Amino acid sequence: MRHLELVMGIPMSVDVRGALDERVERAAVQEAFARMHAADRRFSRFRPDSEVSRYDDDDTEPSPDLREVLGIAARFGDLSGGAFSVRRPDGSLDTDGVVKGWAAQRAADTLTAAGLTTFCLNAGGDVVVRGEPEPGRGWNVGVRDPSDPQSFRTVLEVRDGAVATSGTYERGEHVWDGRTGQPATDLRAATVVAADLTTADVLATCVLALGRDGIAWAAEYGAVAVLAVDADGELLTALQAAPA
Q1: Between the CA of residue 219 and those of 113, 147, 193, 206, what are the distances in Å?
Q2: Residues 160, 9: Cα–Cα separation, whole Å
Q3: Rounded to an integer, what is the distance from CA 23 to the centroid of its chain?
Q4: Is 20 exposed, middle or buried, given 0-12, 13-18 or 19+ CB atoms closer than 10 A?
Q5: What sign does the CA torsion over 43, 186, 183, 76 have?
Q6: Is 91 left (phi over 0), alpha (psi -120 to 50) or beta?
Q7: Binning pLDDT at 50, 70 and 90, where does residue 209 land?
Q8: CA-CA distance, 55 to 92, in Å (whole number)?
Q9: What span, in angstroms and rounded, lies between the C-alpha atoms of 209 and 189?
Q10: Could you tell me the CA-to-CA distances from 181 to 37, 98, 176, 205, 212 in Å, in that order?
Q11: What pLDDT was estimated at residue 173?
Q12: Of 120, 127, 145, 175, which sits with the fewest C-beta atoms within 10 Å of its C-beta?
């Protein structure tokens, strides 16, 4: 089963393989997308009635979900020495650096809880996969070339993991260094492979904010692999050390 919807203003899709009950499969996919739509309504800074907008306006008591997202942001803000921040340079709250990966991971968890074991959830290029689409082969996840949107810099084979990319090639300089309030310009793109998409997404943004120093740093905080492209087009990589 393949399903595509526009969520958070971007296309999100799921490819489910090998489900035993079509009704269960469809219900799980509907619930997964409903959770992502609900996250968009709650966390969009472009909606004046969203919880994020209302919280930023009058500092009302946050819901458990907002408290969780702010907690993730605070943790990685501390770990990155302040480079990662959900406060924009003008002081406004922007949880986008956490929410897309967090919401998509929750959607993937919904599919898993329903008993689906083999799927690829693609949230606008950030991906969660489970199982193998064919025996002996993982899911192929392309990493785009920042200089040519029609080309892939590399293709990763992933099983039971997540891949997220943060870059300047589509939205311009939209990631800033929280320590300086200035746009992050050392890297053009950063891709992180991790066990879950919440971690992969936040770490990719952290790496972009930290620049070259963030590549090895991310490998210490949950990244299985990091691939970054610098301003000159050079590919920089790091792998997590294997456990002793």
Answers
A1: 29, 25, 10, 12
A2: 27
A3: 29
A4: exposed
A5: positive
A6: left
A7: very high
A8: 11
A9: 10
A10: 30, 18, 6, 15, 18
A11: 60
A12: 145
